[in-house]
Amino acid sequence: MREFSEQELVRREKLNKLKELGIDPFGHKYNVTDFSLNIKEKYQDYDHEQLEEEKNEVVVAGRIMFIRKMGKASFMSIKDKLGNIQIYISINDVGEESYNLFKSADIGDIVGIKGYVMKTGTGEITIKCLEYTHLVKALRPLPEKYHGLNDVEERFRRRYVDLIMNDEARKIAFARPKIIRSIQHYLDNLGYTEVETPILGTILGGAAARPFITHHNTQDIDMYLRIALELNLKRLLVGGMDAVYEIGRTFRNEGMDKRHNPEFTMMEVYKAYSDLEGMMDLTEGIISTCAKELNGSYEVEYLGQTISLAPGFKRAHMCDLIKEKCGIDFFQDMRLEDAKKLAKEHGIEVEEHFGYGHIVNAFFEKYVEETITEPTFVFGHPIEISPLAKKDPKDPRFTQRFELFILGSEYANAFTELNDPIDQYERFEAQLKEKELGNDEANDMDIDYVEALEYGMPPAGGMGIGIDRLVMLLTKAETIREVILFPTMKPRD
Q1: 311 phi/psi in degrees, rounded to 5
Q2: Which helix H or strand E contains 357, and what residues bound it?
Q3: What is the pTM of this model?
Q4: What is the pLDDT, as a whole number, of residue 149?
Q5: Does some domain include residue 466?
Q6: Backbone angles phi, psi at 160, to 5 degrees
Q7: How far apart are CA 351 and CA 342, in angstroms?
Q8: Would 201 be classed as within a structural domain?
Q9: Residue 215: inside a domain, yes or no?
Q10: 42, 162, 251, 252: least surrounded by Cβ within 10 Å?
Q11: In sequence order, what are the residues at sequence separation of 6 or more whose Cβ sits closer than 8 angstroms to the Cβ of residue 249?
């Protein structure tokens, strides 16, 4: 049987006393009409005399966060979804029975307050309580504000406590849906249609990543949790839905760190008759709009640096950036053996499945990626690492693809989409060969997708943004676990 602490036992005794008084310890419906922040904003310019004269009635509910119990008049602070507000409660206003009920309350209890707005001698907006209603008895004490939240792991395991105690966590929780709504409104206004596609599939594709594998009992087949949204959205382009997007969960069975969680949220968008340049413009528009609407400015302070998210992001070819850092010109004709030699000289490990393009990408990742500060569209990715992007007609070793980097991290990935079914089939075959050579992230052969392309997919641009990373950037969160309400956690021992 579970053992209770002394505080928990006291709270359970109070719960029983509430029952003896005929009060439900866990409450009923309560008609809330006002919230803390709205009250403060509405009445901040009123003086004490005006408020006393008008007696503006409000009804709020929230969790008790502070109590200063005195004789016949006391103060407490309650927290609702928008913040904290002070309550003044007096035996003369609420009566002896309600005042005694209040005096038996604990920090963490949820209460309802009906009263009118006043200002204290120090000028603090306060509610003078006229009716006190017990709503919920908290059976566990809240952690101490400055000592109880030191265990970061415990913060994320008990997110509900974190949201009670940590105003920054609550701010991020409300900011995230605002960012998603901003994206939706931006795309909706451009004529895009939001859609939903399957999370479960029988073929691995749309990105280079290790999947989670599950099993469907009725059909007795293994299935994958999707690692990307791409292929089904492009099937919709074939079907005539010429501008579509989806914001949804994706899953990758990979490592966990400050920027990676096995379950995360992607936004992918596809536009018929567009291309890479169109996707650059769209990406700029989405990110700059989100920044402006959330924070009122294009300027963002993040990881100790201030950057601008105003439209006009830098655009640079991957090979040009490598040349700037390493002095190597990968635009030149070069044999694979020469590229391998250069890799060895620069401390790059060449894996068995590596072709020329893998080595180019390895140079970028090692010597360039982390040096990028201001928003930069890096384009011209090698064909070996871009099985779904159209070839660059000027140099077929590279593709019409970009990744957006900000402060050394990737925030978006986009293509001029490959719509040639013959080329696509050959790319899938190349992926299968890589898988045989040990690349666990290579794609499967999706013959249905190839057949879809054979019906004809319009020339198109496509782009994906990692929602979690964008939220991190715009809310100044340093780990992905701060912006996911319930991040993946290792079970307790």
Answers
A1: -55, 150
A2: helix 356-367
A3: 0.91
A4: 56
A5: yes
A6: -60, -35
A7: 14
A8: yes
A9: yes
A10: 42
A11: 199, 263, 264, 265, 266
